[in-house]
Amino acid sequence: MMRPTIETMAEGDVKVVARLRLEAFFEGSGRTLDEDIAGLRRLIAGDGFEAAFVARHHGRPVGSCLLVRNEIDSPHNLTPWLAGLIVEEAFRGSGVGTALVRAVEAYAASAGVGRLYLYTWQARAFYEALGWSAVETFEQDGGPMLLMSREL
Question: What is the mean pLDDT of the segment spanning 127-138?
Answer without folding.
Answer: 97
